[in-house]
Amino acid sequence: MVATGRWTIEQVAAVAPSPSSLGAAEAIAVPQRWAGLGCDDLMLWGRCSGSGAEPYETAVDHVDVAWRCTCPSRRLPCKHAIALLVMWVRGMVPEATPPPAVARWARTRAGRADGPAAKPGAGAVAEPDGADRDATDRGSTPQPDTGAVPGTGDEPEPTDRPEPLPPADGDRARDERVARMREGLVELDRWLDDRIRTGLADPSLARYATWDDLAARLVDARAGALANRIRRLAGLVGSDPDWHARVLAELGVLHLLAQAGRRLADLPGPLADSVATATGWQVRQADVLAGVPDTDRWIVAGRSDTREDRIEVRRTWLRGAASGRWAMVLSFAAYRQSLDRSLTVGTAIHADLHRYPGPALRALVGERFGEPEPLVAPPASSIVGACDEIGTAVAAEPWLERHPATVLAAPTRHGGRWVLTDDSGTLPLLASPRALATVLAATGGEPASITVEWTPHGVVPLTVHAADRALDVGPVADPSFVGVA
Prior knowledge:
Elements: H1 9-15, H2 19-28, E1 34-39, E2 43-48, E3 56-61, E4 66-69, H3 79-89, H4 100-114, H5 168-198, H6 208-220, H7 224-234, H8 243-261, H9 269-279, H10 285-289, E5 294-308, E6 311-320, E7 326-333, E8 348-355, E9 363-368, H11 383-396, E10 403-414, E11 417-422, E12 425-428, H12 433-443, E13 448-455, E14 458-465, E15 470-472
Antiparallel strand pairs: 1-2, 2-3, 3-4, 5-6, 5-8, 6-7, 8-9, 10-11, 10-13, 11-12, 13-14, 14-15
Helix pairs in contact: 1-3, 2-3, 2-9, 5-6, 5-8, 6-7, 8-9
């Protein structure tokens, strides 16, 4: 089966290996990110700048439906090929004469198709409209065209071409993981129904085993992020007089994620990526680093350390000096391991950041340009400005648990608890006695630039940005403190 005419965006979505792949392709489906774009009645081609020294050479056969790319991604088609198709569908790819490498690849593919000994599935073939292939090709899976030497167009002889690894096992493993995760989400929703039916006064909720057994089943279902939320939720039961409202709100978020996780295919790309990440789907670092970098002068605004299921987790918050965008770099450490210390609070680095798919802030630091600059503070906003920024993020991801902000405010007492305040509003402080004492000593109760980490229960102070230093308040944010009387 071959494709005829210009595709529709639905056909492009049909060949994408996942909704997250389509979302990642959308981010780079703009001509400004490409060089040498062109198309004819058979092929699409272009060069996309990535994290490597050389741009990724991408070509797509939109008639026989095949693709090749020099990027390291093992997902087929990769996001670069999907982005080419998206731009072509939208009329952003000009007609041109194919470069020699693309023309040679097209001739080679035509020779394989005409040859009597052509191997089924030798090209990366997919059917956008779901029709059956010819009998000789039925049941084959998309394969990478591994015969090309990137950027040269030279093809080795067939005897020199290594046999590509068949991705069937990888596809089957992915399908099995999706099925297992879906079963876990169904079981989670059933468990939530039981909890609501029996009520929050059920004595079993006070037993940690009630929550730990569910978390263990979610780990088996490859939904580790939800398992962590369940274990943290267990610690809220009986923790304060208002624990019922807090537990009920978290149960509602879990129900939302359980429902959304079973409908990923129906969600827009960025939202699907966000739900997949929140449920525990893993994205390979190689795929993230293959994306187009976000280059800026990144200010290291603050960091917080937490312990999740016997693993130390460090969140380092960065803010772009030019873009104003936030980013989060995660570091993990098990027993006798060290957390990443390469990012010092109060400094700035000129570097590439590679962001994970979706609206989440997580990113990886790529190439760095020069040494860190000392004594750099992020711009501070008012309390109302910070609330607007946080509210926008929560509206996009209602399951969000943390978000950074830098405010110009003073610590003070209000309504029996400590808060950060200015003339536009207040934010409740969630701090250990030591952290609160540090903030009070550093500010003297006067307005100061303070980077905080928002949580649904209050803001955790991370850094006090003084004129001559950046005072790292934490680094440990203790979630058991609701406030300090």
